[in-house]
Design goal:
Elements lengths: L2 H13 L12 E6 L2 E7 L8 H9 L7 E4 L13 H8 L3 E4 L11 H8 L3 E4 L3 H7 L1 H9 L3 E8 L4 E3 L11 H13 L2 E5 H7 L15 E5 L10 H4 L5 E5 L5 H9 L3 E4 L7 H10 L4 E4 L3 H9 L5 E6 L10 E2 L15 E9 L2 E8 L6
Parallel strand pairs: 3-4, 4-5, 6-12, 6-13, 8-9, 8-12, 9-10, 10-11
Antiparallel strand pairs: 1-2, 1-3, 7-14, 13-16, 15-16
Helix pairs in contact: 3-4
Length: 365
């Protein structure tokens, strides 16, 4: 096996933990000695040992003189765990391949420098693009202090999310819906508007055959019209946060808080998307999945407050000018003024297409 193949093993280990390490990144590490894989490790959860620690422990005495392949720069500071760079030095590892440097100011370049000063040979950038993609949510959060936002929708071939009567079950296939649950597992929060609650009464939980993490539920409700009977209020499998305006229903606020719901009151009647994201960042939510209706989608797009859009497109035509579109709002007057994206992935799930798109660099904020 060559260096890229060993790093790909580390990347695969890390990829399996997506959704469970927040607010930490997903990291994998392997140790190789004399052409043998002698140690593997992955970071499983914030506050637990890092990938490098697990790899060194599984290698035991074989760590001395071995080569480490790690997907992210080893930490050099004391947090909830001891510095990994120190343990690497103490273990007698002779060389370290690092896929990507850590953008965290507490770490960036410092772990690398510590290893070099200790006389360990270090190479940076092996499988860098894959490593950056793996932890794009973490990198965005560290650099902006706001969550990485994914807008998701299941739509018909002609871009509708529901018929003119509001019927939407089911536009996409079981394969697409199962993939959505994987997306929920990989995000810290899931956000909808109050109309989605009133129309569909969803649970907004993760339902995967192999289990998964439930994201924190976030609802935009400017008047605080949330029914006490709503599933997101009565179901206690995860936390629910409601953002409201300064003209909300006062009595309802107390009723909801008595049910354990967190209410965040903004200073204006209309909810500010930017303030929502700022608050969620302060709460250490690294990523948020937007599953709102067309107006919620339009609000995030108008504010350029998103990092990717994932559309599950079914081979079905609903038609009708009164059918509900994927994105509402007033829209652009001219095509050139629209939001311009680039497709980054196209996959087939059952009969559907899953298309991932990101803003062009000039569109991002």
């Amino acid at each position: 096996m060559n260096d890229c193949e060993y790093m790909n093993i580390a990347l695969s280990l890390a990829h399996a933990t997506l959704g469970q390490t927040s607010p930490n990144p997903s990291v994998g590490a392997v140790l190789v000695k004399d052409g043998r894989l002698v140690g593997t490790g992955v970071h499983l959860k914030a506050g637990t040992p890092h990938a490098e620690v697990h790899a060194i422990q599984t290698a035991g005495n074989d760590a001395k003189g071995a080569v480490m392949y790690v997907t992210l720069e080893p930490c050099s500071h004391y947090g909830k765990t001891a510095p990994c760079a120190d343990l690497i030095i103490q273990s007698g590892i002779k060389k370290v391949f690092i896929a990507a440097l850590d953008p965290n100011p507490l770490v960036s370049g410092k772990g690398l420098e510590k290893l070099i000063q200790a006389g360990i040979e270090v190479e940076v950038g092996l499988c860098k693009e894959e490593a950056l993609k793996l932890n794009e949510k973490f990198f965005h959060f560290i650099q902006t202090n706001t969550p990485f936002v994914t807008i998701k929708a299941g739509i018909s071939f002609d871009g509708k999310t529901a018929s003119k009567t509001g019927d939407s079950k089911w536009i996409t296939s079981p394969e697409s819906r199962q993939d959505v649950h994987k997306l929920r597992h990989e995000h810290d929060g899931i956000l909808v508007g109050i109309n989605t609650i009133l129309q569909d009464n969803p649970l907004l939980t993760t339902r995967r055959p192999q289990g998964g993490k439930n994201p924190i539920r976030i609802v935009l409700d400017s008047k605080l019209n949330m029914p006490i009977s709503a599933n997101v209020v009565q179901d206690r499998s995860t936390k629910t946060i409601i953002f409201t305006g300064n003209q909300h229903h006062i009595a309802r606020k107390k009723e909801l808080e008595d049910c354990g719901i967190t209410i965040v009151v903004q200073e204006n009647p209309q909810i500010s998307i930017k303030e929502v994201l700022k608050t969620l960042g302060e709460l250490k939510l690294m990523s948020v999945l937007i599953e709102g209706g067309s107006e919620v989608h339009a609000s995030f797009i108008a504010e350029k407050a998103f990092q990717q859009i994932i559309a599950y497109i079914a081979p079905t035509i609903i038609a009708g000018k009164n059918a509900i579109p994927f994105i509402g709002g007033l829209g652009a007057n001219f095509v050139k003024d629209g939001t311009h994206l680039q497709f980054t992935a196209v996959d087939q799930l059952g009969p559907d297409l899953k298309i991932t798109a990101k803003p062009l660099a000039k569109e991002e904020t």
